[in-house]
């Protein structure tokens, strides 16, 4: 076994090892140590029986039992100064660090760790830079200790530190007397150059000073906030005393005012009892209690919701038909079904029938016809768009336990119109989404079911609200995406889209006058021929509704307006079909016609699109092969099946027409 000397002490290279948790032993300092683990106790007893020398290494992961891979290679050889055994089998010891060392080999792990080490000398240069760095470290340590109350950092200790000539001892004492992270201590232990160690320690001490300054700023700001709150509290109490002396009690007035509003709100008995109970809580609650503002907001909602206020409707079928015809051209089946619905409601008085769902392509007048129904009934109209809605709380509201909680959209909308029987349109019901926050369509089931909506439960109100007098109308573009349970509660009214003749009539009767007014033009200044409008419909739009038609006509009118402003002419402009390409450019959509004469291998097909039917030619050609059917183009299943059926038909009658089977 080899030895090496440190000052007057001979140290063997083979030593027992103790793994340290959350601490690092540095040379030339004495630290107290509690030894509990069985392998550490064994290493301690072996050292006491021999030369009292132990190699101390720090454990990387304190949660695990000690293993070879869990120990830093660089540690410190220490001498056991004193030992005191405890009744539970553990020991307390004072340990003095002697010299840095490095593990070269692990001899054994049981019953305790025994390792071979070699000295890890700290190189000194004795240069002016090294002395300056040492002075800098002492100065930074002094600044840290002046702002932190460390137990062993009295002015005498700092003075003693400044008088030491051994840089390694200064480094060890500084590290041992400030609260550094274990990783930082180990990093300093592993640097084997005095100058580099002093530089690393300077960085650590500078960071510690920055943390201290940040803490001071936080403490100062906290004290400032506390003082401000105490001042506000004092002033509020003073204000209360003054108001009491003057006989003013606004809080009591608020409670009395709410009590009157609750009586006048026309609430059902159960709701009124709930409101009275919450009002009593508010009256007993200190005004500084944060919950008082939430409770006050809740009571304001309860008294402002229209529990009994409603519009007195007068259903006049002739007037309703007149309004529908005035506002919308065409759609005879849609109007007939709406009038039937109103007739039954007038006869019964209170209709518990299905909820109407207007289904059709965009721009066919679904939303606007809902407004016309409201006009015909003399009710207020509400429209809520459900497109992209994914949170159930948007329908049912948030519970009062959440900060900033509010009722759902249904109750909010009824609260805003201040009556309980509006015409309520739920727009784009087919575009509701589902995610982790719930399924809004399930929340709508209760609102749209005539058997349940007389006691609709909003999470915020926590009391039932009667929706049975609300006339719900929904709209959708695609019925396939509506959940089956919700669709079962809806009566579907199809909006098939407009024919070209209907679009022409709508453009002349509605769109032209609306767009002329919005652009500041009069009929005496501009006239658009019917054929010109027809060309816009056929060649520049392809839709079931009239939104794109409105945009194209608006584009023409803007260009005409610009022309009039630039020329300052008062002459009337008449647009014919030959003028349209000048304003809208070349034809955007072409329409294929069926073949005039029959041709071999060519047949006319009829395809379905969301904007109407299309005629197109289907052409077949023959080629050498095994008789397989190859289809090209983006064909739907129906067209593919039709082509297969045609082939089967031809093969079944091949012999009759003299066609040979391959």
TrEMBL record:
Keywords, ordered alphabetically: ATP-binding, Hydrolase, Nucleotide-binding, Protease, Serine protease
Keyword Hydrolase: yes
Record carries keyword rRNA-binding: no
Stretches assigned to the Lon proteolytic domain: 597-662
Domain Lon N-terminal intervals: 15-209
Reactions this protein catalyses: Hydrolysis of proteins in presence of ATP
GO molecular-function term, one example from the UniProt record: serine-type endopeptidase activity
Gene3D superfamilies reported in the protein's UniProt record: 1.10.8.60, 1.20.5.5270, 1.20.58.1480, 3.30.230.10, LON domain-like, P-loop containing nucleotide triphosphate hydrolases
A matching Pfam family: LON_substr_bdg
Protein's organism: Candidatus Yanofskybacteria bacterium RIFCSPLOWO2_02_FULL_45_18
PANTHER family per the UniProt record, alphabetical: ATP DEPENDENT LON PROTEASE FAMILY MEMBER
One BP term from GO: proteolysis
InterPro entries: AAA+_ATPase, ATPase_AAA_core, Lon_bac/euk-typ, Lon_lid, Lon_proteolytic, Lon_Prtase, Lon_prtase_N, Lon_prtase_N_sf
Main localisation: cytoplasm
Record-level GO cellular component terms: cytoplasm
Superkingdom: Bacteria
SUPFAM superfamilies, per the entry: P-loop containing nucleoside triphosphate hydrolases, PUA domain-like, Ribosomal protein S5 domain 2-like
Protein name: endopeptidase La
EC id: 3.4.21.53
Annotated localization: Cytoplasm
């Amino acid at each position: 076994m080899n030895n090496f000397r440190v000052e007057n002490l001979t140290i063997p290279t083979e030593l027992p090892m103790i793994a340290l948790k959350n601490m690092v032993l540095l040379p030339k300092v004495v630290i107290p140590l509690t030894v509990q683990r069985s392998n550490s106790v064994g290493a301690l007893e072996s050292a006491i029986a021999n030369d009292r020398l132990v190699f101390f290494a720090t454990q990387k992961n304190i949660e695990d039992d000690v293993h070879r891979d869990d120990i830093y290679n660089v540690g410190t050889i220490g001498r056991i100064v004193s030992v005191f055994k405890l009744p539970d089998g553990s020991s307390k010891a004072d340990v003095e660090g002697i010299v840095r060392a490095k593990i070269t080999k692990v001899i054994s792990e049981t019953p305790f760790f025994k390792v071979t080490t070699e000295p890890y000398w700290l190189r000194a240069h004795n240069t002016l830079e090294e002395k300056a760095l040492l002075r800098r470290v002492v100065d930074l340590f002094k600044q840290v200790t002046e702002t932190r109350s460390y137990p062993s950092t009295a002015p005498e200790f700092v003075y003693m530190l400044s008088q030491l000539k051994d840089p390694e001892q200064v480094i060890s004492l500084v590290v041992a007397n400030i609260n550094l992270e274990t990783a930082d201590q180990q990093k300093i232990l592993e640097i084997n150059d005095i100058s580099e160690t002093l530089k690393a320690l300077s960085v650590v001490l500078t960071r510690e000073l920055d943390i201290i300054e940040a803490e001071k700023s936080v403490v100062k700001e906290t004290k400032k906030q506390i003082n401000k709150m105490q001042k506000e509290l004092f002033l509020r109490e003073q204000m209360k005393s003054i108001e009491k002396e003057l006989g003013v009690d606004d809080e009591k007035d608020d409670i009395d005012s709410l009590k009157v509003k609750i009586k006048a709100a026309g609430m059902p008995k159960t709701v009124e009892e709930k409101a009275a109970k919450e009002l009593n809580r508010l009256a007993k609650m200190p005004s500084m209690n944060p919950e008082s503002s939430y409770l006050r907001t809740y009571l304001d909602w309860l008294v402002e919701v229209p529990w009994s206020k409603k519009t007195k409707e007068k259903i006049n079928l002739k007037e309703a038909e007149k309004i529908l015809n005035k506002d919308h051209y065409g759609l005879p089946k849609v109007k007939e079904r709406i009038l039937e619905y109103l007739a039954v409601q007038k006869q019964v008085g209170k209709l518990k029938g299905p909820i109407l769902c207007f289904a059709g392509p965009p721009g066919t007048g679904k939303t606007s016809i809902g407004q016309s129904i409201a006009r015909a009934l003399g009710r207020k109209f509400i429209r809520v768009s459900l497109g992209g809605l994914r949170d159930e709380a948007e329908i049912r509201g948030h519970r009062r336990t959440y900060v900033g909680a509010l009722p759902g959209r249904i109750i909010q909308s009824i609260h805003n119109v201040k009556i309980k029987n509006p015409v309520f349109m739920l727009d784009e019901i087919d575009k509701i989404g589902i995610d982790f926050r719930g399924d809004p369509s399930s929340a709508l089931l209760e609102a749209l079911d005539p058997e349940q909506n007389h006691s609709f439960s909003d999470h915020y109100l926590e009391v039932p609200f009667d929706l049975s007098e609300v006339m719900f109308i929904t709209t959708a573009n695609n019925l396939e995406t509506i959940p089956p349970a919700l669709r079962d509660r809806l009566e579907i009214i199809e909006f098939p889209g407009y024919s070209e003749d209907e679009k022409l009539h709508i453009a002349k009767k509605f769109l032209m006058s609306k767009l002329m007014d919005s652009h500041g033009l009069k009929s005496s200044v501009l006239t658009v021929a019917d054929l010109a409008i027809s060309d816009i419909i056929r060649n520049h739009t392809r839709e079931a509704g009239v939104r794109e038609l409105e945009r194209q006509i608006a584009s023409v009118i803007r260009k005409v307006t610009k022309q009039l402003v630039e020329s300052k002419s008062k002459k009337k402009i008449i647009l014919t079909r030959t003028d349209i390409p000048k304003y809208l450019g070349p034809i955007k959509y072409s329409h294929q016609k069926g073949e005039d004469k029959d041709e071999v291998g060519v047949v006319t097909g009829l395809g379905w699109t969301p904007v109407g039917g299309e005629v197109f030619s289907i052409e077949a050609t023959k080629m050498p092969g095994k008789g397989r059917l190859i289809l090209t183009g983006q064909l739907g299943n129906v067209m593919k099946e039709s082509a297969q059926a045609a082939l089967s038909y031809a093969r079944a009658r091949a012999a009759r027409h003299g066609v040979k089977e391959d």
